[in-house]
Amino acid sequence: MPDFDWNDLRAFLAMARTGRLTVAARQLGVDHSTLSRRISGLEAALGAPLFERRPVGFVLTSEGEQLLPDAEEMEALALRLHGRLSEAEQNLSGSVRVGSPEGFGTYFIAPRLATLAASHPRLEIELVATPRSFSLSKREADLAITMTRPAQGRVYAHKLVDYALGLYASPSYLDKHDAIHQREDLAAHRWIGYVEDLMWTDQLDYLPQVQRGLRPHLRVSNVISQMTAVAGGAGLGVLPHFMGRHHPDLVPVLADKVRLIRSYWRVTHEDTHELARVRRTTEFLDDQVQAAGDDFWLD
Known about the structure:
Elements: H1 6-18, H2 21-28, H3 32-46, E1 51-54, E2 57-60, H4 62-87, E3 94-100, H5 102-109, H6 113-119, E4 123-129, E5 143-146, E6 155-169, H7 171-176, E7 191-194, H8 207-210, E8 218-220, H9 223-231, E9 236-240, H10 241-244, E10 251-253, E11 260-269, H11 276-292
Parallel strand pairs: 3-4, 3-5, 7-8, 7-9
Antiparallel strand pairs: 1-2, 5-11, 6-9, 6-10, 6-11
Organism: Pseudaquabacterium rugosum
Family: Belongs to the LysR transcriptional regulatory family.
InterPro entries: LysR-type_TF_proteobact-type (IPR058163), LysR_HTH_N (IPR000847), LysR_subst-bd (IPR005119), WH-like_DNA-bd_sf (IPR036388), WH_DNA-bd_sf (IPR036390)
């Protein structure tokens, strides 16, 4: 191919995945004019347009769609080569992005990152703690924490931990409302739950498992804000024990009668699974979960 440049292909992949010139340029650490030149250079080398500009952003043409899998294969090869070279370094370096549900990322991973950073000062750690799923094939994360095991894809999945959730309320709420002695008492109380169409996994649909017919009076899109609403006295909520048990303004409700079990899985892509920095980060998470032990359970 005349005048082919690997950086042009990296620009193509970033644009294909984001659809936005400024976002893709930011990911690559270049200005948008440089990125535009690289896309134009690749199109000139191939003799075909790769993107169409539409109101929603840049969309792949049919030629771009044909190029995408080959470009991803070349990217995978480059990552593997880089990984082998990195193994020769005594100290880990480079960037690792960890994608995680917001509760686990904020209340479990984030407080422990100082240990990983101190052990590997040249390692750049990016924690993306947000209520969504992550595409490893699109390089949205190097290591993803999920609530279900992926059913497909070129990925490695390992169960990280089982954890329990229970009912919580604030002391102020319990003081002002009818006593709760059994499940049947729950129907008379106000509930906090998820915004239904914003649930990124059906694993978050807790209330039907607590008791049939329960419906939220207050809907909140993420578990951290739900916990804050529960602590503020807005109602009852279902919270992971690794979050709720440490909050000074929350108390468990019917702990001996209501317990839900969920799991976290750690997932890495086949192309990056053996990179030293990714492997060390997965080992770190495994070690931290094992050390936490009963923190994922109430008793």
